[in-house]
Amino acid sequence: MPDSENENNIRQSTRPRTGSSLFRLKTKLILIIIGVLGLITIIGVYFYLYKPKLYKWKQNGITVAGGNGRGQKLHRLNRPEGIFIDKNKNIFVADYENHRIVKWKHNAKEGKIIAGGNKKGRRIDQLYGPTDVIVDEQ
Fold first, then answer.
1. For 21-62, what is each residue's pLDDT tens digit?
2. Which of 63, 84, 87, 62 lies closest to 130, judged by CA?
3. Per-domain residue ranges for the chain?
4. 57 compared with 17, residue with greater pLDDT
5. Which of 60-64, 68-72, 115-119, 126-130 shows the lowest mean pLDDT across its residues?
6. Is the Cβ–Cβ distance between 18 and 66 less than 8 Å?
7. Beta strands in the chain (DSSP E)
8. Is-contact 81 132, C-beta < 8 A?
């Protein structure tokens, strides 16, 4: 959770291969949960601020990428690791076991491979267990 000194931080769990990140965007918090079963759930959170800081979370979330079990098809992920969300709400996922980066458009039922996806390797068209993704939007 955000600490009292810096409300604009991002926090990631220390558990391997799963995690959650907390983002503060204006007056809305977003909790991103990455699970071991190949899904990414985003919980949009409106919060109530008390003294000391206390946040009330909605108890429901929506799965925005994966969620159909592990696998190689474009509606599945296998050990998603890092994510990037752009200004158009596209979600870019480092799909570790599938050795690819997948782009999920907002409300899409499946993703599109934008890098890798040709088995693990070191060729220019391959990735080897990607763990993070950053997109330069310029």
1. 544 444 444 555 555 455 555 544 444 433 344 455 556 666
2. 84
3. 19-116
4. 57
5. 60-64
6. no
7. 19-25, 28-35, 39-46, 62-66, 80-85, 91-95, 100-104, 112-116
8. yes
Closest CA to 18 of 102, 96, 105, 106: 96
Q: What is the pLDDT of residue 25?
A: 43
- According to the CATH classification, is domain 19-116 in 2.40.128? no
Contacts of 13 (CB under 8 A, 6+ apart): 19, 20
The per-residue pLDDT of the chain, averaged, comes to 70
User: What are the Cα distances from residue 130, in Å, to 21, 54, 114?
Assistant: 18, 36, 13
